[in-house]
Amino acid sequence: MRSLRSIATLIATAAALWSAAALPAAADANVVVDGAWVTLGHITGATGTAGAVRVAPAPAPGGRSILNTADVAAVARANGVNWNPQGLRNVTVERSGVVVPKTKITDALATALGRATGNRALQPDLIGAPTAFYVPTGASPTVAIENLEYDAPRGMFTATVVTPASGPDAQRTQVRGRAVSMADVPVLINALAVGTVIQADDIGWASVRTDQSRGNVASDPSQLVGQTLKRHVRANEPIRLADVQAPVVVAKNSTVMMVVEGPGLQLSATGRALEDAGVGAVVHVINSQTHQTVEGVVEGPGRVRVTLRRAPVAIAAN
Which one of 12, 50, 62, 315 is at 20 to 30 Å from 301 when CA atoms are compared? Predict the structure, then answer.
């Protein structure tokens, strides 16, 4: 008897567990709205006067909020709507919207910074800002800036971004960032192959941060026109002076004529260049007869001038 009872208990327990597993887990319903309010019609499908009843304010354009189904059911009952949430736990509401181009945000901030500081070259570098700004569906994606505060010693700013710029649906978002000084520098319009001689019509202009254009970055087209690329440079990026060189007139391992000058000495000798070099560049050359390595300056095709600080112990000349 006890065995039969134990078996019956096991069967009942298994059935209960199976029934529990078969029940759907609590889930969320998803609703998309395009206005300022979430209505019973959005959630329950009700029409007429009941469907227009406001349940809760909609989130900001592009945002989302969560409503408890018990609260929604209470509003439905109060308005004669028979709504069965069917085990739903929450209602997730998403509000559609139009994305404001990021350039409109940065341009508006740059204009505000220029007015506040008198420096039109400042550009905003936002820190921790939303990935996107929205305006309501059907609204114009305009931008206004309010409450700008600029900390000149630190180069930091805070401001309120208003989207759209005016109207009852305007959203205000606090932002902060760094005001970065910009400068125009010459850049390649299109990427060129290594070794290509840069022409004037290969060059355009780009605005870059001054902290990325100091030192060895070309600042004038005259530093680039007539030069060749030593390595790959992407289009519209600052060009380092180390990335270009004068056109190669002395090729690596080619024979060159060395004009050797020193105290009371001037002669010529032949040698072998150890690297490619252009006019005005320093090149290392091995003297063909003494096998000594000397350093000289390229004067032209196949011609290197070597200046000695003191007279050599021995040198072979032509």
Answer: 315
Q: Which residues contact 301 (CB under 8 A, 6 or more apart)?
A: 249, 250
- Amino acid letter, residue 57: P
Length of the chain: 318
Does CATH number 3.40.50.300 belong to domain 183-245?
Answer: no
Q: What is the pLDDT along the chain (318 residues), one digit of tens a residue?
A: 445 455 444 444 444 433 333 334 446 788 999 989 999 999 998 999 999 999 999 999 999 999 998 899 999 999 999 887 777 888 999 999 999 999 999 999 999 999 999 888 899 999 998 889 999 998 999 999 999 999 999 999 999 999 999 888 889 999 999 998 888 899 999 999 998 999 999 999 998 888 766 668 999 999 999 999 989 999 999 999 999 988 889 999 999 999 999 888 889 999 999 998 888 889 999 999 999 999 999 999 999 999 987 655 555 555
Reply yes or no on domain 248-307 having CATH 2.30.30.760.
yes
How many Å apart are CA 214 and CA 231, to the nearest integer? 20
CA–CA distance, 231 with 268 (Å, rounded to integer)? 34
* Shared fold status for 183-245 and 248-307: no
| Residue ranges covered by each domain of the chain | 24-95, 100-181, 183-245, 248-307
Instruction: For residue 209, list its beta bridge partners.
Output: 182
